[in-house]
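for the record, two folds in this file. i put them one after another cuz i was lazy. first one right below, seq on top, structure tokens after. the second one comes after a little note so u can tell where it starts
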Amino acid sequence: MEQGLPLRCLLAPHQVRNVPWDSEMENPPEIVVGTILDQQAVFRAVTGVHTIIHLESAMWWGRQRDLERVEIAGTRNLITQARAARVGRLVTVSHLGAASSSAYLLHRIKGQQEEIIRASGLAYTIIRSGIVFGEDDAFINNMAMMMSTNPIFFLMPGMGEVSIHPIYIDDLVRAIQISLERISTVDRVLEIGGPEYTTERDMLQTIMRVTGMGRLVIAMPPYIMRFLSRVYNRIFPRSFVTPHWLDILATNRTTQLGNTFDYFGFQPRRFEDTLLTYMPQERYFLRALRFAFRRRPRRI
């Protein structure tokens, strides 16, 4: 919008009411109402388009069925309609560790999605990012919400030794924007993360330090955490911890520290410095109540 580029967004009906821009703003995107599984809506959305930025995902929904339908069936439908409309290029965001042979469902599905895109016949750019954090993320914020509901301890999956490579949402958006202009990013799988690695335990300590919510961290076997997640899902409409959330913490997910600068020419922001700009002001207990009793995302 800032660059004056013509934009079009495919949004589900319930998303249309929550767009982050004002319709009276300069150069507002055109909106097509529908889902990624709706063939007619997708064809309308991609007709006349040069580049698709594919960001639809079900990774935080907590259901394998939704993950398979959105990531696999939805991507196949998008590619079919894009080829029919003679779209030039597809840009999408994947995960560090994505592989069709992975033992973890989330990364296996993401790996299968990447294979579908690479075999599509379209020019593509696949950006594998570290875990993305920001003011409305469903990972760092969920940790803070869990801490706010228990003033004594926090259950940590595993021993906390897993290495994570977080990247701030604005830096990921900037990378996507720059990829549209760089021919060197076409037909490539690019792995990026923030300027530092952190372990699961260090991440928890940082969140507690920034929010002022000191808690006793108790290491818990991942299989018990998965069981507790299923129990929690039966009690509340939504769970703070989903199976896909635990997949991210199952093994190390990192890439080279200088990749973001090498590929896109800028230095991403540091983890703790960025959290300090918004987390201390957030009321996580009230946010946790709204989250736990809010309906799940609608089925596609």
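(here's the note) second protein begins now
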Amino acid sequence: MQRRHFLSLLAGSALAQPSFTPPNIVLILADDLGATDLGCYGSDLHETPRIDRISRQSLRFSHALSPAPVCSPTRASLLTGKHPARLGITIWSEGALTPPTNQPLLPATSEPNLAHAETTLAEVLQQAGYSTALIGKWHLGDAGHYPETQGFEVNIGGTHWGAPPTYFYPYSGPFGSQKELRYVPGLAPGAEGEYLTDRLTTEALRVIDAFHARQKPFFLYLAHHAPHTPIEAKPALVAKYEAKLPKGVNHTNAKYAAMVESLDQSVGRVLDHLRIRGLDRNTIFIITSDNGGYLQSGNGPRITSNAPLRSGKGSLYEGGIRVPLIINWPGVTPVGAVSAEPVVLTDLFPTLCAAAKAPAPAGATDGLDLLPVLRNPAARLAREAIHFHYPHYYPTTTPVSALRTRDWKLLEYFEDNRVELYNLAQDPHEKTDLAAKNPAKAQALRDQLHAWRQSVGARLPTPNPKKP
């Protein structure tokens, strides 16, 4: 009887602990979508009803940060869990190949390719039995470093280029001042007037169906080009925003607004497809962006505004690195919650590895598992600071590093070695530099920043011998 009782208890215990079913993962990464470009993040023009709706059912982060103020470094960091400075990727691929030589400093060298020695999230999940797909923008290296070499079974549209020549079919034509012929592969045949954001979404739905038929978990990385330049949108949507454009608003670009609404429609289509296929209850759904909003293209009209945050893409002020981040994980994330905990997109790597129960690679990692915050938005992570390193030039900045805690922000500029200090708790818009008034705090954070740069092997800019 005792043995029967023991076996009965054992069987009951087994029934109480159901087997683990790996969640599907859908990661939608917008390009240059600013911190206030969505309705649920305060846009005063853009209409994003589908993203707003899923936000109300999810956990929304109000202080999510990109690990870099430009695209390629953030994408490399997100996929590896390592800081861009540790990877040696601190600028986009083309910028790494042709750095400027007419500035007071020569920018730090940057790798144009994500090294095969690095283990990507796709590789980890593939080893754990996942089907994996990249649809859209890759921008992490030449053909020898395309997604297929980094753990993605399917690659639709991913190349070494960072932007399409046009958002309309056939998605090909001259690009930039050099009139380079560019194209988006894998999208033929198409129809006249077909829009890139819509077509990439259609491809994503086809991949979901193909993967679902295998009865295996899947990782879909839908990396939209929108709303990156060229600023092109569907005429009907442009006309809608031109007609409704109010006075005295921060967001004033009707074409950009239309691009954001097309992005919103894409999110809605993917969500509807998951629900119809019965996949929504076991899918982690993430919406975010690779850096802050892009302010202006040359002498053209203003593209977007990150107000009340300071500056935009390329800068290490909050406008350049603050991004939307919405995570929906049924059974884990509370409904309609907001977390003010500072997080960085590098955190997605360990978080998703843990969610899939897929062993992360041994070695250095710079991200933290967000599960405590996903379960309890008031939770705090055991992290002293988030670091940034952009040793390059951009219209919004000269070479700079930064360190951000919950309440404090220090920026160190390499041209003149000056530092700026802001109390983000009292001055979230970075208007009042406190470095001169609080030199002890500035020096302590500067020392911490230097120690971090040394620990990750951050490469530094050097004096330009051709400049006095």
